[in-house]
Amino acid sequence: MSLELPTTGDPRDSDLVRAARGLPVRRTPVWFMRQAGRSLPEYRAIREGTSMLQACRTPDLVTEITLQPVRRHGVDAAIFFSDIVVPLQAAGVDVQIVPGVGPVVANPIRTAADVAALPSLQPDAVEDIATSVRQITAELGGVPLIGFAGAPFTLASYLIEGGPSKNHEHTKALMAGAPEVWNALCAKLADISGTFLRVQASAGASAVQLFDSWVGALSLPDYLRHVQPHSAAALAAVADLDIPRIHFGVGTGELLAAMGQAGADVVGVDFRVPLDVAAERLGDAYAVQGNLDPALLFAPWEALQPVIADILTRGKSAPGHIFNLGHGVLPDTDPEVLTRVVEEVHASSANGQNS
Ligand code: CP3
Asked: 321-325 and 245-248 as β-strands: parallel, antiparallel, unpaired?
């Protein structure tokens, strides 16, 4: 641990950006969704006494927390420390993050009048986000920073349900029963997400990821009709900035190609679909990111190592592979296992073995 941050190099020529573009890499790049967070004792220490959303709006905290996993694990990218509800709160939505629960919205959105009252996001309401990105990229040198936003469906689900939901029943009911209200809501959310991505990209992020974590709850026809155009609008907000766009969801085996077609360079794959199968479903047109089951980080190393090797082998089927988990790091994960995974991915993919 406590690796020095590399201070030289151009993040646009990093293995992460190269893999995202389907170019040859020195080693398979690796980072972890939720690498900044409760699995790290240094994160728990620095967060003490500060709420999640307050921490997300404090540039010195955002900078330190974003850098912690890069220093400790030697990952090939930093992910901006923030949350998908930060731009909603900055726009004026009354939302809190309740520990152990997730985002909770005071006044759920259910009607045309609720949608009309949803404010838009002005870039100057998130000036602190641009400040954080500039501070982080100054420290990272050649290591790329990934900016992110929540996709319209996943944000809409939190806003409509009022909090985390297993079945997304109010969301699906609105989508099916009042498609004009649904479309008006998602158009506003695409604008908010697009603005949030653009602020981060303009301030120096080298890639962006659109998180549609819960969209695997939909069928392909519903995704194509009710969601894909809005996700495409969010991703289009940074299309002219020439940085790779990653599009991720959980349980999205049926949706992979449609998520690529929304305007991604890289499609995130959870642990349910092997990467060679994912590459085939994607028509070999996109790089892939994933797909180690986060629960397997709790297994003995002898069981984990062959899974890593298998993912690296199957990842070669795609034009590019970014090693990651199939979803975020679980809070009780031993951080030393994460460091070991990084070392293993680097050692077994070095010297063109996996390029
Ligand atoms: O390291 C990283 O990946 C960057 C930070 C990041 C966070 N949230 C920090 C966070 C990212 C990329 C997110 C995105 C996010 N937030 C998503 C999409 C990714 C995914 O996991 O599918 C979603 C669905 C959310 C909503 C959300 N925010 C949930 C479900 C939770 C967990 C609630 C809990 O306490 O279990 C949060 C809070 C949150 N966001 C934490 C962190 C580190 C934990 C809060 C804390 O540490 O106090």
From this structure: unpaired
Percent of the chain with pLDDT over 70: 96
Residue 18 annotated as catalytic: no
Query: Which residues on neighbouring strands pair with residue 150, listed in sequence order?
Result: 211
Q: What are the DSSP calls for 230-294, one per residue?
A: HHHHHHHTTGGG---EEEE-SS-TTTHHHHHHTT-SEEEE-TTS-HHHHHHHTTT-SEEEEEE-G
The residue extents of the domains of the chain are: 11-349
Residue numbers in the known binding site for substrate are 34-38, 83, 158, 213, 327
Q: Which residue among 158, 191, 198, 223 is the active-site one?
A: 158
Residue 156 CA, chain-centre distance (Å), reads 17
Helix or strand run (H / E) with residue 208? strand 207-211
For 61, what's the count of Cα atoms within 13 Å in the CB-facing half-sphere? 19
292: left (phi over 0), alpha (psi -120 to 50) or beta: beta
Known catalytic residue at 71: no
Is residue 124 annotated as part of the catalytic site, yes or no? no
Model confidence, pTM: 0.96
CATH class of domain segment(s) 11-349 = alpha beta
Exactly one of 12, 21, 26, 47 is catalytic; name it. Answer: 47
| The pair of three-digit structure tokens given for residue 191, joined into one six-digit string | 């604008």
CA-nearest of 61, 31, 59 to 48 is 61
- What residues form DSSP beta bridges with 191? none
Quick check: 355 pLDDT over 50? Answer: no
Parallel, antiparallel, or unpaired for β 95-98 and 102-105?
antiparallel
